[in-house]
Amino acid sequence: MNPLIPIVLVICIYLPGSDSAGLEGKSLIFPVQTSNSYVRVFPSSFSSLTAFTVCLRAASEASRSYGLFSYATSRHDNELLIWHKPDGVISLYLRGVITDFSLPKMDALLRHICITWESKDGSVTVWVNGQRSLQKVGGKGQFVASSGQFILGQEQDSVGGGFNKDQSFVGEITDVHMWDRVLATSEIELISEGCFDTGGNIINWGTTDYRSVGNVRIEDNNDCEI
User: I need a surface site. Which of 3, 16, 91, 170 has the fewest CB within 10 A?
Assistant: First the structure.
């Protein structure tokens, strides 16, 4: 009699919400409003920041307010928030200090957005597709605390949560980078053209770990990569 031959059945299961590393050449697609779909980004460790540059590419046809980039700590749910309003105003929330910039409203075309801030003089500047806004003053003498959570797709009302469906992002986000300094004009211009090969030292889209939760699609962006 022939011995029994064991049959091994291998089933591969994809677990939504699992951690992964790097999104080089990828975009996050948020197809609908939700209160439970988001991407958490795990930055390199940093102490409190007295300057930063945040850059990303985004497109949205939503005719309401939503968050583009949310960083919350136990002391401030809007420790650092980039907020878009229906009339095109982009606001930087920094520990309760709000600085508004009147810009063309978002649409279906991907645009490159950078915001720079420095505590010493409180200077805040927005860049859209390599073009600089006027400089404003906001958050002079402030700092950005560490040990918080970075979230894309939602605005945090508590660390890692407190999401509101009506404030969720619907659209596409890609090429998210963050530095602990104010980048030079020439650097931001190169980044906007996809010609700057050094990613952020806090968040680097190509290498930083992330966790996708809920209804978020990750697609090739078929675009120039930073």
Answer: 3
The string of DSSP letters for 200-218 reads -SSEETTT-EEEEESS-EE
CA atoms within 13 A on the CB side of 149: 19
CA distance 38 to 20: 14
Is the Cβ–Cβ distance between 51 and 218 less than 8 Å? Answer: no
Going from the C-alpha of 32 to that of each of 150, 167, 168, 186, the distances in angstroms are 21, 12, 9, 36
Q: How confident is the model at residue 8 (pLDDT cuts 50, 70, 90)?
A: very low
Residue 143, CA distances (Å) to 71, 79, 91, 146 in order: 13, 9, 17, 10
Burial of 62 (0-12, 13-18, 19+ CB in 10 A): middle
Fold of 19-220: Jelly Rolls (2.60.120)
pTM above 0.85? yes
Ordered by start, the domain boundaries in the chain are 19-220
